[in-house]
Specification:
The structure is a single chain. By secondary structure, the chain is an alpha+beta fold. The protein has one domain: Beta Barrel (OB fold (Dihydrolipoamide Acetyltransferase, E2P)), CATH 2.40.50.140. Helix content is 20%, strand content 42%. It contains two helices and six strands; from the N terminus they run ββββαββα. The chain has a five-stranded mixed barrel. Strand 5 and strand 6 form a beta hairpin. The radius of gyration is 21 Å and the shape is globular. The N terminus is likely disordered.
């Protein structure tokens, strides 16, 4: 149970910082494009798309989420090597609001899913190997 306190009822040593509840989200989808990774692997950004049924017109209803990873090891060893456009992944993380300046100079905010855990279901390396194998089979048949 959470107790609401007035400013005068502060506990000794308590700061002015507000409590924020971070919800853990799980999102499964396919990459809309190849991930963007900084040269030092400090940051990786990618967008996942998930099909959520069809609309009244019969078109696929897609939901997208921007994901950001700040983990150098994950970015270098998994995201850079294993993810490409169309790969399927499961991301566990927390949504944050990010402020940025648009091209027209206005201040805007966007929601990003900060990656805590990543499971790759469809590795880019597997796709490349399958494509290479298919092209070699085509040459052998010719």
């Amino acid at each position: 149970m959470r107790v609401k306190r007035d400013r005068g009822d502060r506990l000794p040593g308590a700061s002015d910082q507000q409590e924020t509840d971070m919800q853990t989200m799980v999102f499964t989808g396919r990459l809309a494009a190849d991930p963007q990774i900084s040269p030092d692997f400090a940051k990786a950004v990618f967008r996942l798309l998930e099909k959520r049924g069809v609309d009244a017109a019969g078109k696929d209803r897609l939901v997208g989420v921007n994901c950001v990873s700040w983990s150098k090891g994950l970015n270098e060893k998994v995201i850079a090597r294993g993810l490409a456009q169309g790969c399927e992944a499961v991301v566990v993380g927390a949504f944050i609001d990010t402020a940025y300046a648009a091209k027209d100079g206005t201040e805007r905010t966007a929601k990003e899913l900060v990656v805590n855990r990543l499971t790759v279901l469809d590795w880019a390396e597997d796709r490349e190997a399958a494509a290479l194998g298919a092209s070699e089979d085509g040459r052998a048949a010719a």
